[in-house]
Structures are given as C-alpha cells and as structure tokens.
C-alpha cells in the first residue's frame, strides 16, 4: 500500500504552518512535503533538481496548490501537472486566497479537482484544512498506487 503523502505548495509560512498543524492534529497524512514555490513543486513531482534522487512514480495522494507563488505561479504548475502522463491524474486542490472569478475558471479549465478559498479566520482555516485532508487523504481513491 502506498504511503499517503500530501504535497503542499505554499509560499506563506503562516498558511503552511496552519495547514500542517490541522493535518497532523487529525493524523491525516503520513508525510507532508512542502514546496515553497512553483518550480520546487515541479522539481519534486518530476524528480529534478534537489529531488533528483526521488522516485517520481511515488506520487502524492493530493496536491494542495496555492496560486500566487514565486518563480512559477500555481496555474502554470497545474498546467504542467495535467500535461504530463505520469501526474495527470494526481488530485489537485487549489487552496488560495484569490477570489478572482478568472482564477477559478482558469483553475478548473486546467484540470483542478477543487477550488477552495482560504478562510481568513484561524479556526475556519484549521477546519477547512481538516476537511480537505479527510476527503482527499482518507475517502478519495486515486487510480495509482
């Protein structure tokens, strides 16, 4: 059985800490890998750069992807994930503070499985992360692994 790994692509240290805290508090992920920019996320997924020793066929159970990222934005990352036959079926949840209709539409057009706006309130943020983890890491079944 494949270990349930979550790839969190987040450049905001506070949001990163909150998300990890919520997931660990509820024992929802065996491993949480954090990429702090879009290029690092792709390096991890495709076993390049600092991750070249990683088995690229050990895919995360889900990717939580922020849109506003340094180096390569989330929409570009999502597009590359969906264009690659190895990663095309990995569930991607856009978890962002953006409420722009264009971002929502473009995320879904590029193949996002879900679009969730980050709650501003601390407790709501923790609960949203818990629910995302529960669904995507426990209930959802992926076609690989």
Write the layout of secondary structure elements.
Layout: E1 5-9, H1 13-25, E2 31-35, H2 38-45, E3 62-65, H3 74-83, E4 92-96, H4 101-109, E5 114-117, H5 122-139
Parallel strand pairs: 1-2, 1-3, 3-4, 4-5
Helix pairs in contact: 1-5, 2-3
pLDDT < 50 stretches: none
**What is the CATH third-level topology name?**
Rossmann fold
> Can you summarize the main beta sheet?
5 strands, parallel
How many angstroms separate the termini? 7 Å
**What's the overall average pLDDT, rounded?**
90
Q: What is the SS-derived class?
A: alpha/beta
Number of helices: 5
As a percent range, the share of helical residues equals: 40-55%
Query: What is the domain tally?
Result: 1
Order of helices and strands: EHEHEHEHEH
Task: Give the full name of the CATH homologous superfamily.
Answer: Response regulator
Record the strand order, biggest sheet: 2-1-3-4-5
Number of strands: 5
- Report strand %: 15-25%
Assign the CATH architecture: 3-Layer(aba) Sandwich
What's the level 1 CATH class? Alpha Beta
Give Rg in angstroms. Answer: 14 Å
Basic shape: globular
């Amino acid at each position: 059985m494949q270990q349930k790994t979550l790839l969190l692509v987040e450049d905001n240290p506070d949001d990163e800490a909150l998300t990890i805290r919520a997931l660990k508090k509820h024992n929802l992920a065996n491993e949480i890998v954090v990429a702090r920019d879009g290029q690092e996320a792709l390096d991890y997924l495709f076993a390049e750069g600092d991750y070249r020793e990683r088995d690229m066929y050990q895919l995360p159970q889900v990717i939580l992807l922020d849109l506003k990222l340094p180096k390569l934005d989330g929409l570009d990352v999502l597009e590359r994930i969906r264009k690659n036959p190895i990663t095309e079926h990995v569930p991607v949840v856009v978890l962002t503070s953006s409420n722009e209709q264009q971002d929502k539409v473009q995320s879904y057009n590029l193949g996002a499985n879900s679009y969730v706006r980050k709650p501003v309130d601390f407790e709501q943020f923790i609960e949203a992360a818990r629910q995302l983890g529960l669904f995507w890491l426990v209930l959802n079944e992926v076609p690989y692994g």
